[in-house]
């Protein structure tokens, strides 16, 4: 005996197709893995507001990621010792090349990385607000609870295709603040390639110079304007000596009141630039304001 079959409702099919398309476009499918470096927030940023408007608490298992949406849950595994922990995404970042996640102090402690500048980690996306948890039997906690797993041996990182990501400007820190890391003196391997150490001015010496045009991003944070190039270079060397990255120099026409402007950038949206300007003032006493980058 055969029974008639009926096609599923068109509205249900359309909903599933839209969900799958959205996940594919964002590259945020539950179960996806990512390998890179992790660092953690500085203790003095406890109580600060993140890019999502959440108050950061160093005692919670929370983290920042550039693309995962607010309240996503992620398993982070320390590839040096095999320890792992489940965290909740509450902030955007980090914006330093090679780093893929910024962890709270408690999460860093669970992973055994306190005192380390960065450690290699593997991320596994467990759930997002619009996707079901990876394991329905043990859904990820919100707020999160620690999940520490000891492995017999460190895991080797799986190959990962590099994504074309434009790095956002931030100081290169030992420990990072939410979204915008702190500029603290790094180890001897830090600031590799700058060759400036902790220099504060454009004094006599030999410098490697590479000029490149910048056509990415729409906004920046202007931190200085000068009539002569040497004064602008003094500020650039000072910023590099404090381990800031992505420093732009805008040369204007000879008729302008100020011919050289020093900018930290770039940012895709104005809110991110404003958030960064506020962080510069609060954390480092650097005054800046958002500008539209010249085209």
Write up this protein.
This protein has helices spanning 10-26, 105-110, 229-241, 270-284; strands at residues 33-40, 62-64, 73-78, 84-91, 99-103, 119-127, 219-226, 247-251, 260-267, 289-292. With 295 residues, it is an alpha+beta fold. Among the domains are: 30-158, Beta Barrel (Barwin-like endoglucanases), CATH 2.40.40.10; 219-292, Alpha-Beta Plaits, CATH 3.30.70. The strands form two sheets. A six-stranded mixed beta barrel has the order 1-5-2-4-3-6. A four-stranded antiparallel sheet has the order 8-9-7-10, with helices on one face. The longest helix has 17 residues, at 10-26. 36% of the residues are buried.
Question: Which short descriptors sum up this protein?
Answer:
single chain, 295 residues, alpha+beta, Barwin-like endoglucanases, Alpha-Beta Plaits, 6-stranded mixed barrel, 4 helices, 17% helix, 22% strand, elongated, RlpA-like_sf, lyase, RlpA, cell wall biogenesis/degradation
């Amino acid at each position: 005996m055969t029974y008639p079959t009926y096609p599923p409702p068109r509205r249900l099919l359309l909903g599933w197709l839209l969900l799958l398309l959205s996940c594919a476009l964002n590259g945020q499918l539950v179960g996806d893995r990512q390998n890179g470096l992790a660092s953690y927030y500085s203790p003095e940023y406890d109580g600060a507001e993140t890019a999502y408007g959440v108050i950061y608490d160093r005692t919670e298992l929370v983290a920042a990621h550039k693309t995962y949406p607010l309240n996503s849950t992620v398993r982070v595994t320390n590839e040096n010792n095999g320890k792992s922990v489940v965290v909740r995404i509450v902030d955007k970042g980090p914006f330093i090349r090679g780093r893929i996640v910024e962890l709270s102090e408690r999460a860093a402690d669970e992973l055994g990385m306190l005192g380390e500048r960065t450690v290699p980690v593997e991320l596994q996306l467990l759930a997002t607000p619009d996707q079901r948890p990876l394991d329905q039997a043990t859904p990820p906690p919100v707020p999160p609870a620690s999940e520490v797993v000891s492995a017999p041996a460190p895991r080797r990182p799986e190959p990962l295709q590099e994504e074309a990501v434009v790095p956002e400007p931030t100081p290169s820190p030992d420990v990072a603040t939410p979204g915008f890391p702190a500029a603290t003196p790094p180890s001897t391997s830090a600031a590799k390639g700058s060759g400036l150490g902790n220099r504060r001015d454009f004094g006599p010496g030999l410098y490697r110079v590479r000029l490149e045009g910048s056509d990415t991003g729409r906004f920046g944070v202007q931190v200085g304007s000068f009539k002569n190039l040497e004064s602008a270079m003094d500020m650039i060397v000072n910023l590099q000596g404090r381990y800031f990255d992505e420093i732009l120099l805008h040369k204007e026409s000879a008729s302008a009141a100020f011919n050289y402007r020093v900018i930290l950038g770039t940012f895709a949206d104005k809110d991110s630039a404003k958030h960064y300007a506020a962080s510069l003032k609060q954390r480092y006493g650097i005054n800046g304001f958002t500008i539209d980058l010249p085209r």
